[in-house]
Amino acid sequence: MKKSMLLSVLLTGSIVMAACGDDTEPADADTPDDAGDTEETADDDGDDDGAAEEDDEDEEAAQEDAPQGGTVTYGYTQPFAGVFDIAHYGGQDDALALGLMTEGLVTTDDELMPEPNLATWDISEDGKTITFNIEPGVKWHNGEELTAQDMAYAWQVIAHPDYTATRFSNVEMIVGAQEVKDLEDYDAEATHELEGVTIVDDHTIQVELTEAAPNTILNLWTNPIPSAHYEGLAVADMEESDQVRREPVGLGPFKVTNIVPGEQVEFEAFEDYWQGRPNLDGVVYRIIDGEMAGELVQQGEVDIIDVPPSQAVDLEGADGVTLEEIEALSYSYIGFKLGHWDGDKNVMDNEKFADKNVRQAFAHAINRQGIIDSFSEGYGTVINAPESVVSWAYPDESTLTQYDYDPDRAAELLDEAGYEDVTGDGWRDTPDGEEFTVNFMAMSGTDISEPRATYIVQNLQDVGINARLQDGQLFEFNLFYDLVEEDDADIDLFMGAWGLAADPDPTGLWREQDFWNFPRWVNEESEELIVRGLSEEAFDMDYRQSVYQEWHQLVNEELPLIPMFSPTTVYAIDSEVGGVTVGVRDATRDSHLWYRNQ
User: Fold this and answer.
1) 3-class DSSP state for residue 226?
2) Which letter, b or e, does each residue of 472-486 get, where b requires 16 or more Cβ atoms within 10 Å of its Cβ?
3) SS3 letters across 97-110
4) Which of 25, 56, 523, 566 makes an SS bond possible with 16, Cβ 3.0 to 4.6 Å?
5) Are the C-beta atoms of residues 595 and 62 closer than 8 Å to each other?
6) Average pLDDT, whole number, for the chain?
7) β-strands 321-327, 129-134: how paired?
């Protein structure tokens, strides 16, 4: 999810980490159900408007009838980084706090299609100009009103040459954004206007795009940031500033009152929240020991948390606890380190896994269903493509190589690739006769983290691979991803996961210039297919789906990573707490509707 990576397994294909706010990392994108209707506004037509009005009325009635007051504690199992700005945060650890205090112009519905939140929109006939109509009267936590300037400012910050985070792929389609990013002579103390952005009035902003794409609405960054809050602050200084880390400002239902770095964030109800004062008086976002998650819910110390399946089983039928399951918009994987990031692009230069037969052998050596059964109580689905089974782009499995657990096949592939035990020490050597050792890196965090990692290492050892846990230990969440990002020389294999965007465009995770392409895989055919998936022809959903089917077949064959499983997330919720909506990324949505029976 750091970097939008979820902990239990885990952005963005297109985190996130992340990220899933812009709910995933690195790109959040959704596709209209009829991409040809580019002239329609997000309001849709009569029947849907009526349904939306009825939903709004039902929501208002539910909010009025709900008990008022009290607090709720939302738990998480890893220390948060404390980057509480939607344009800069990196992972699920900060995303959960941001989910309580921020919102975007656009959100997604239950089918992962875009729907209005803080704005409606119109798209021009050629698909290259979007006009956002922002809800008037929306207030930031500092009392300022949300205006078109705040949306323009967010785009300017992300396009600035000194911007320190990784959302540029979400603004690069704006006319003039690339030119600003490439400026050599620029003002480090100020942002620069983008040619394609026009502020029509305080609540109307128009953005011109370089080209039309089938996933424009949610691939485009639509999360405003408070321009007045950052006035006078250089873009390069934002991520480490007090405005982000100690005194953050949002426009969601709860505002920050106190931060204990890495441990706890306290929120109070925002009286001027645009959808009405929240039912609760406050929320506490609290970091806990993952091995005690279920126990703390039973004790009333934590009210909402996603729990490891091993703990969920123990909570079944427990008094005072409600369990809710949902298939997550994410997937877990074991990545090969095929190269490194050179500062501008990925470079494949690691010979250890250059032979795809070796990578395929590793896939056959690992008992993925056994991992689900042994450590996840059967929650989750084995996958052979890097995509969530929730996505409309999940490929037809019958067209993919099924990397079933087959140690004999793994041994056969390794033999064919020349990886045999030539020294007689029981471990396979390289075709050149050199020692072949494999460092496997995994995260700590839950009670299953260590036994699961040990199980995977044993699977590899069973086919003669001299595998071992890197440094003989598991790594804390943020350190883990720091080392993965830096392509630490000791990493051969690493276990991670991505929280995904609603739109399946692989851009952001899989292209040559994508920093979050952690395996560092570079493939010309992959590049071409990803471009085709956003082409004019891709406005035809059948065509677009066929492109992604072909792309998944390519990844399935080349195997730059081993897809593990598409998880089922289990949330434990205190039975006194109501109004909680469990989503495919987290349970922070519509937190203004949460209530506590007292």
Assistant:
1) coil
2) eebbebbebbebbee
3) HHHHHCCCCEEECC
4) 25
5) no
6) 89
7) unpaired
pLDDT over 90 at 183, yes or no: yes
Identify the CA nearest to 220 among candidates 128, 312, 358, 311. 128
Sign of CA dihedral 573, 19, 127, 386: negative
- The structure's pTM equals 0.78
Query: Structure tokens of 529?
Result: 């297919």
Block residue for tokens 């992300």:
158
- The one-character DSSP state at 35 is T
Closest CA to 385 of 493, 525, 506: 506
**Predicted local distance difference test score (pLDDT) of residue 56:** 52
Q: By the 8 A CB rule, do 477 and 443 touch?
A: yes
DSSP symbol at 382? E
Contacts of 241 (CB under 8 A, 6+ apart): 230, 233
* Contact criterion met (CB below 8 Å) for 90 and 16: no
Distance CA 6, CA 19 (A): 8
Q: Whose structure tokens read 């996130």?
A: 16
User: Given its phi and psi angles, is residue 338 left (phi above 0), alpha (psi -120 to 50 degrees) or beta?
Assistant: alpha
Strand partners, 259: 265
Q: Where do we find the tokens 């059967």?
A: 378
Q: What is the DSSP letter of 261?
A: T
Q: How far is CA 521 from the centre of its chain?
A: 20
The more confident residue out of 423 and 5 is 423
Taking only the tens place, the pLDDT of each residue in 352-365 is: 999 999 999 999 99
Q: And the tokens for 372?
A: 């689900």
Residue 95 CA neighbour count, 13 Å, CB half: 28
**Residue length of the chain:** 598
Following DSSP, what letter does each residue of 537-558 receive, concatenated? Answer: GGGSHHHHHHHHHHHHHHHHHH
Find residue 208's DSSP bridge partners.
Answer: 129
Helix (H, G, I), strand (E, B) or coil at 445: coil
User: 443, 8 in Cβ contact below 8 A?
Assistant: no
Residue where the block lists tokens 């399935």 = 556
Containing 479, the helix (H) or strand (E) segment is: helix 477-485
Quote the DSSP letter at residue 430. -
pLDDT band at 17 (very low <50, low <70, confident <90, very high): very low
Strands, sheet with 119-123, edge to edge from the N-terminal-most edge strand: 119-123, 129-134, 204-208, 197-201
Residue 67: count other Cβ atoms within 10 Å of its Cβ: 14
Q: Residue 589: which residues within 8 A CB-CB, separation 6 or more?
A: 99, 581, 583
How would you label 206-242 residue by residue, b for 16+ Cβ within 10 Å and e otherwise? bbbbeebbbbbbbbbbbbbbbbebbeeeebeebbebe
Three-state secondary-structure class, residue 277: coil
Q: 105, 124, 132: which is closest to 116 by C-alpha?
A: 105
Using CB atoms within 10 A of its CB, is residue 21 exposed (0-12), middle (13-18) or buried (19+)? buried
Asked if pLDDT for residue 3 goes beyond 80, the answer is: no
171-177-178 Cα angle (round to 5) = 105
The H or E element spanning position 307 is: strand 304-307
Q: Are 572 and 8 within 8 A, CB to CB?
A: no
Question: Is the separation of the CB atoms in 223 and 157 below 8 Å?
Answer: no
Q: What tokens appear for 533 in the block?
A: 């998936």
How far apart CA 588 and CA 572 sit, in angstroms, is 14
